[in-house]
Design brief:
The chain is an alpha+beta fold and 173 residues long. It is 18% helix and 32% strand. The longest helix is centred in the middle third of the chain and has 12 residues. The protein starts with 19 loop residues before the first strand and ends with a helix.
Length: 173
């Protein structure tokens, strides 16, 4: 019997300029997501939680908290972009289209550049443009970020799964 390794994200060497990564998991935003995140972050803009107030806005309804949208798209991109990162160095964000409760967000990322680090030889810096699209293909958020990503042989990412006292194949008998 052998242990089958799962996807553990890309390391610095795995990134190629021009590659596009599309996360296959869309996420439909609920009213609970929006209100919870808004209250959690103490955002007092009523366009996120007061339906009557939001009816008078240019959109005529509640708008999803942009902080939530950014966090969701960033999170969706982690398996492809920053699973093996140890720091986001910068992020330039644009929000070209509003997000509403009921929208489903999908994420894609484009590798723009990469370079090895002279100060940290076990890592490199990758620049990625990530976009969140709604179900109609409208870009709701996009950001370019520079991420410090470990190389495959970095000592920081060596196996860290604990060895069981009793191997699983013996426990299952």
């Amino acid at each position: 019997m052998s242990v089958v390794e799962r996807w553990n994200g890309r390391f610095f060497e795995d990134f190629e300029v021009g590659d596009i990564y599309r996360n296959p998991l869309g996420r439909t935003i609920t009213d609970v997501d929006n209100v919870w995140f808004t209250l959690l972050t103490m955002n007092t803009n009523q366009n996120h939680f007061n339906v009557e107030y939001a009816k008078r806005s240019p959109f005529g309804k509640l708008v999803v908290n942009s902080g939530f949208t950014i966090a969701l798209v960033l999170g969706q991109s982690v398996p492809d972009v920053s699973q093996n990162a140890f720091a986001n160095l910068s992020m330039d964000i644009r929000l070209p289209h509003p997000v509403f409760v009921g929208d489903t967000i999908y994420t894609e990322s484009l590798v723009k550049s990469k370079r090895g680090s002279s100060s940290r030889p076990y890592a490199g810096i990758v620049s990625v443009l990530t976009r969140g699209l709604n179900q109609d293909g409208k870009v709701c958020v996009e950001f370019e970020r520079n991420v410090f990503v470990y190389k495959k042989d970095a000592p920081h990412v060596a196996a860290h799964f604990p060895e069981a006292e009793t191997p699983i194949e013996e426990a299952g008998r």
